[in-house]
Amino acid sequence: MHVVSLHRYPIKGCRGHDLAVATLDALGVVGDRRMLLIDENDRFLSQREEPRLATLVPALNGDALVVRTEGSTFEHEAPAEADRRVVTIFGDRVSAADQGNVAAAWFTGVLGRPCRLVAFDATSHRLVDPAFSPRVDAETAFTDGYPVLGVLQESLDDLNGQLDAPIPMARFRPNVVLSGALAWSEDAWHSLAMGTVVFDAVKPCARCVVSSTDQVTGDRHPHQEPLRTLTRLRLQRPFGAIFGQNLVSRSTGTISVGDTVSCE
């Protein structure tokens, strides 16, 4: 197998962008889902309830964040001193750095609902579910629960053969896309080595309505595809409809597009 593409998503739920090289730290891909939008109750927002997040296009430029959407651009640098907020994400309570009233006002105006931008910083901590992690100290930032998501291009190709209209891999919001293996062979992954990093494959990735959301327009598929077909073909209890594998790295390092991948 080999790495065909790499991706990160600076703000959870918002659009991602491609990378030629991904740097891995203790939390996953550097710059991936380190920021989060929260509602007035300090609960996280995602495309599950706010599909318009897909229309927000964030990019990282050094320490600066630039977010573009139709008709508006917002540039932001993290405040030197930030208030702390305890935010709730999938039942976890995480201390995060509030990014201030200017950021809150811009995102509130764009989305038409009260929200604030927070960041996962050096004092934030969130453990991976120990029931699946090979290390009790493994952490993640504002992902759904695991540091890195790996998927297989051949599995998407097979899925697309079952759909009335093919979908792009962006629907599944992966970090690492691999190719060169049989469709659905990710079910048997135990560990993956690529670049200077070894990953443990710890849990199949359960899918939700986000996979049925156009990652450019934010529109939902009228028949909830591909989720409906995945549920028919790839239902694995107790997880649900699965596509891809959640990965935990054994160390920091780098991976690049084109890297050869060895699998056990």
Key terms for this structure?
264 residues, mainly beta, M1 Pyruvate Kinase, Domain 3, 2 domains, nine-stranded mixed beta sheet, four-stranded antiparallel beta sheet, 19 strands, 10% helix, globular
Number of domains: 2
CATH architecture of the largest domain: Beta Barrel
Instruction: Please describe the biggest sheet, giving its number of strands, its sense, and whether it closes into a barrel.
Output: 9 strands, mixed
Helicity range? under 10%
Counted beta strands = 19
CATH superfamily of the largest domain: PK beta-barrel domain-like
β-strand amount: 35-45%
Uncertain ranges: none
Shape: globular
The N- and C-terminal alpha carbons lie at a distance of 12 Å
Mean of all residue-level pLDDT scores: 97
Q: How do the helices and strands line up, and which of them pair or pack?
A:
Elements lengths: L1 E7 L8 E3 L1 E5 L2 E2 L5 E4 L18 E5 L2 E6 L2 E6 L6 E6 L2 E7 L2 H11 L4 E4 L28 E5 H8 L15 E4 L11 E4 L2 E10 L20 H7 L1 E2 L3 E10 L3 E4 L4 E3 L1
Parallel strand pairs: 12-13
Antiparallel strand pairs: 1-2, 1-13, 3-4, 3-18, 5-11, 6-7, 7-8, 9-10, 10-11, 12-17, 14-15, 14-19, 15-17, 16-17
